[in-house]
Give the backbone structure.
Amino acid sequence: MPPVSDNLLRRLELPVVRRLDGLLQGDHKSPSRGDGLDLADLREYQFHDDVRRIDWNATARLGTPYVRDYIEDREIPVWFVLDMSPSMMFEGVSVSKHAVLMEFTTLMCRLMLSRGNRAGAMIFSGRVDRTIPARGGRRQLLQIMNTVAAYRPSPGATDLKQVLKDAAIAIRRRSLIFVVSDFISTPGWENSLSLLAMRHDVIAVRLSDPLETRLPDLGLLTFQDAESGEQLFVDTHDRGFQARFAAVADAREANLRAAFEKTGVDVMELATQDDVLDALMRFAMMRKQSLRRSA
């Protein structure tokens, strides 16, 4: 993949960034509240709240734990935990999940840097292979995107549980974290994602391809597992096979939805046929409405 150029970033400057920034900014608060200095309000303690924000005076007066909410600090760090495992290279109907990851990360990173945030990245395949410390400026975006473009995944299964544990250790200051992945991994990562969300504002960006859930009639094909290398020769014309394939895919989707619901993090679904900018706009609007209802 060719390197990301400064000219490409300039083409993203005004129309794209202004559309997103206008929606995210709203009443001059970002969609998440952070570690700013201006007190926004007091509210009852909820699960996942940082215990360090408990207002002990209000708690003693009211007899119920209360926490302080602050107006978002525009300097809150933003981290991109990026899945570059072999399964992300799968290209079905339109483009690969890797290409969608590149577009999403470029747009969101460009937006956050333009708002004065610092951005960093953790790139993983089977494990975390590269960490780019959070910094600001256009050069940082170029470094992140060119590192992603040049990265070559290592073989083996993805251990998302360990990746999320490593992220919790490496990212110390409260941050906004985008976990961009297809979440095809060895099981057991849910608790690690929940623990990460206890300190940080975590958004799971789940990438998918339509051919991962429904298989058309393409005749005789050889399938290869992108991460294990295992191969299987199948007849996609066989309706029985198509039905079994769909049933397994539906069960996997249901398990994944249940896992996300268990963690309590916000999830942005992004398929390879989606328009990334439109999907971002819809998600930002839904997230803002959700945060206003819970405030």
